[in-house]
Amino acid sequence: MGQEEIKAFLIHLGMNINTAAQARDPLACDAREWTFITNRMSERGLNMAVIDLCEGVRYESHPEIAVRGAWSVGRLRGELARLRSLGIEPIPKLNFSATHDQWLGEWGRMLSTPDYYRVCEDLIAEVCEIFDGPRLFHLGYDEEDVRCQSAHEHVVLRQGELWWHDFLWFVKVVEKRGARPWIWSDWIWEHHDEFLRRMPKSVLQSNWYYDEGFDERAFRWPRIKCYLDLDKAGFDQVPTGSNYVTPGNMEGTVEFARAQLAPERLKGFLTTSWKRCLREDREANLAAVDQLAAALRGH
After folding, report:
1. Of 80, 164, 187, 205, whose CA is between 20 and 30 Å from 143?
2. What is the DSSP track for 112-181?
């Protein structure tokens, strides 16, 4: 028997990942909203929470990363147990893209140095222990380019062989802990042939597209087509949509993927609102959950 289809929502504990945002302190996550959203996930039949941890945990290995209000390791463990009791598999996410690693604090400004590697490995090891050996570990790794850092006061990114060196290093560190690496696939948009040639098949792929329209007439068809190219090349995928742009995106994503991708390589679906767990963002968060559930029922 294969694994159950992934029906996942990306939920944000920490969110110091935005390109132009100032670091948020205290933690931008309300515990009541977190509970409200995760209960809704269970009610709608979703079975996975991809948890963006970032600055939201007081890591024992690196407590300096935490902001005020960050959860203790004990509190996080308790919440993971509650999620499992709801039928929701918790999966950790730490975004190591140089565009989205503001949560790392000073360590994010030491990219590709011995101290950087040490800290990143410490965090991955601790998180895998906290999650009791997760089967997947999302590394982020999206939007590491000049355009996405145009509003940054401190601009740093990897290119060419250094990008591959660091990425493959992260893959090795995660696999050493028994988890399967999972990434955003958008590096393929600008490095198509190289990506398909050098990307390990062991890495779970989440190409993403948030608009409407899933054929050659779509403005971003080259990005959509990457779903097909990844499938043809033999990669396992979890296509990702969102209500960030339009409420109809998730329905289109599910319909397109189920019709076009090989069932054995289509591992499920992921959605997110890209909103915080705060009362003012409740509507967007719940809508994202509901839209994925409805799309899966309809197809």
Report:
1. 80
2. TSHHHHHHHHHHHHHHHHHTTS-SEEE------STGGGTT-SS-----HHHHHHHHHHHHHHHHHTT-EE
Encoded tokens for 107: 């360590």
- Helix pair 249-260, 221-232: axis angle to 10 deg: 30
Is it the case that residue 22 has pLDDT exceeding 70?
A: no
Length of the chain: 299
Q: Give yes or no for a contact between 267 and 237, defined as CB atoms under 8 angstroms apart.
A: yes
Specify the pLDDT at position 190: 96
What pTM was computed for the model? 0.97
Partner residues linked to 137 by β-bridges: 181
Mark 150-159 as b/e (b = at least 16 C-beta within 10 Å). Answer: eeeeeeebbe
Which region holds residue 244: left if phi is over 0, alpha if psi is between -120 and 50, else beta?
alpha
pLDDT digits (tens, 9 = 90+) for 150-171: 888 889 999 999 999 999 999 9
6-298: CATH topology is: TIM Barrel (3.20.20)
3-state secondary structure of 107: helix
Q: How confident is the model at residue 3 (pLDDT cuts 50, 70, 90)?
A: confident
* Contacting residues for 63 by C-beta, under 8 A, at least 6 apart: none
Spell out the domain ranges in the chain. 6-298
Run of H or E including 246: none
d(CA 38, CA 50): 11
SS3 237: strand
Query: Among residues of the chain, what percentage have pLDDT more than 70?
Result: 97
DSSP per-residue letters across 53-92 = -GGGB--SS-GGGPPTTPBPHHHHHHHHHHHHHTT-EEEE
